[in-house]
Amino acid sequence: MTDQIPQQPYPTTPTQPKDSTMALLSMIFGISAYVILWGIGAIVAVILGHLAKNEIKKSAGMLKGNGMATAGLILGYVQIGLFILSVCVITILSLTAGSVSDVFNNINTSLY
């Protein structure tokens, strides 16, 4: 009989969940929508945010970054909303351009 020591299995360390790349990119594009990429950055942030949330949900805990994806979605949707609001305001102002310019002229002349 031999005196062999039974081999112990290697201790398995649980792997830490990694950040979703799409969630990070969603947040980056959401921030850049206010600084550099006004229109396209918001659209990309919204698309990547939805894809990241779907990816995180399907990863069974192996990916994290749900907060970054949510931040990208919020920033993107707010930017799109502001864009639509500004288009509406510009359209209304352009349709009433004569009356608006008269109001500003009256204000300007009354100050002197």
Domain module tally: 1
What is the count of β-strands? 2
Q: Topology as H/E string? A: EHHEHH
- pLDDT average, as an integer? 85
Q: How do the strands line up in the largest sheet?
A: 1-2
General shape = rod-shaped
Q: What is the alpha-carbon Rg in Å?
A: 27 Å
What key phrases describe this protein's structure?
112 residues, rod-shaped, mainly alpha, two-stranded parallel ribbon
What does this entry look like structurally?
The structure is a single chain. 71% of the residues lie in helices and 4% in strands. The chain is mainly alpha-helical and 112 residues long. It has one domain (18-107). Strands 1-2 form a two-stranded parallel sheet. Helix 1 packs antiparallel against helix 2 (40-58) and helix 2 runs antiparallel to helix 3 (66-95). The radius of gyration is 27 Å and the shape is rod-shaped. 23% of the residues are buried.
Short précis:
The chain is mainly alpha-helical and 112 residues long.
How is this fold's topology laid out?
Blueprint: E1 18-19, H1 21-35, H2 40-58, E2 63-64, H3 66-95, H4 97-111
Parallel strand pairs: 1-2
